[in-house]
Amino acid sequence: MGSLHHLREETLELVRVLDPDGNLVGEPAPDLTDEKLVEFYRWMVLARTFDERCLNLQRQGRMGTYAPLAGQEAAQVGSAFALQPEDWVFPSYREHAVTMIHGLPMEKVLLYWMGREEGNQIPPEVNVFTVAVPIATQIPHAVGAAWAARIRGDRRAFIVYFGDGATSEGDFHEGCNFAGVFKAPVVFFCQNNQFAISVPLHRQTASETIAQKAVAYGFPGVRVDGNDVLAVYKVTKEALDRARAGEGPTLIEALTYRYGPHTTADDPTRYRGRDEVEEWRQRRDPLNRMRRFLMARGLLDEAQDQTLAEEARQRVAAAVQAVEAMPKASPAAIFDYVYAQLPWHLEEQRRELLAELGEAGAAGGSFAGGGAPGPGAGGPGGAAAGGSGTAGGQGATAAGGAPGAAPGRDGQQGGGR
């Protein structure tokens, strides 16, 4: 029982650098410049601003179903900044901040959630896999890509994101087992936001933590305060360094909380109380924690904080304006982003639809002026939007060509490359 008790203590330990009041506690702070610390906070503000705007767009009928990230900014920003540009990101459907930090233009993220297939066409220079809406399906993909890189002698690392509900899926266990056996250079990053839609964590697993599941597969598991951006950065960097050094995978459980619904189709008041949400908002908010830390160090004041917020609002507003100014998509575009060459039966359906649209157009149909790209425009690398909800009817762009980009890791445009 002694060794079992020792294991239990290790797996329950929570790595933390900042307490909820922004004070340094526990682990030493990572070695970061003052400019980088402010950049972390800048991105957290931008992520929340983006999230709030997307929720408003959805409620106004200008965006389809959307998966909010509010409350999880530290988990996403801290882990994304630990990556190197050549590393690969395999997101689920909530990692908007991660993908933008890693180089995906904000306009692409907006297009995706507006129901546009072009939003899932990743620019070739951006190492981000397409959005995965089905739960945990991206995990075997990430492990396979990481294993291929190891076979080639490629020292880049891979990180795959998922929620606590995904750990109840077979894909999670198969991916972990394979990665452990073959020492794939992959980091499994679980944003444990306490609920798989409406199902609380204790109904998902009998394990006291998710991190301890790594033990069964022969690699380390780490439990980190997911609302502490510095702690998340620290443990993710260590895990990515292990992967690049050929030491195999790591499972990170980032303990966090989503303030809003699972998606805009969800009503969280049906399965959790207001007091619980307010406890996380008021006491454990990741932005408040980092803001207090920066102010205590003299790196931020109220005026600068307001400036950052205004810059974020302007950046998001410009991206929304650019996307909504694009031509409307034709319904025929649904045929253009899955196959390099359409099968005969889909080609036949496409012709029938175009013929119908021609008649509708003559009668004043609503899709005029939005010609669809030719068959196979997305190419073999194109991907379907994967059930992102109803099309918002706003904005198309040429394949692979959304204008502008989110501020990069060092504040410049284009993902900081």
Automatic annotation (TrEMBL):
Chain positions covered by the region annotation Disordered: 366-417
Organism per entry: Thermaerobacter subterraneus DSM 13965
EC number: 1.2.4.1
Record keyword Oxidoreductase present: yes
Domain annotation Dehydrogenase E1 component: ranges: 41-331
Role played: The pyruvate dehydrogenase complex catalyzes the overall conversion of pyruvate to acetyl-CoA and CO(2). It contains multiple copies of three enzymatic components: pyruvate dehydrogenase (E1), dihydrolipoamide acetyltransferase (E2) and lipoamide dehydrogenase (E3).
Pfam families: E1_dh
Catalytic activity entry: N(6)-[(R)-lipoyl]-L-lysyl-[protein] + pyruvate + H(+) = N(6)-[(R)-S(8)-acetyldihydrolipoyl]-L-lysyl-[protein] + CO2
PANTHER family tied to this protein: 2-OXOISOVALERATE DEHYDROGENASE SUBUNIT ALPHA, MITOCHONDRIAL (PTHR43380:SF1)
Record-linked Gene3D superfamilies: 3.40.50.970
InterPro entries assigned: Alpha-ketoacid_DH_E1_comp, DH_E1, PdhA/BkdA, THDP-binding
Keywords: Oxidoreductase, Pyruvate, Thiamine pyrophosphate
UniProt-recorded name of the protein: Pyruvate dehydrogenase E1 component subunit alpha
Cofactor section: thiamine diphosphate
GO terms for MF: pyruvate dehydrogenase (acetyl-transferring) activity
The keyword Oxidoreductase appears for this protein: yes
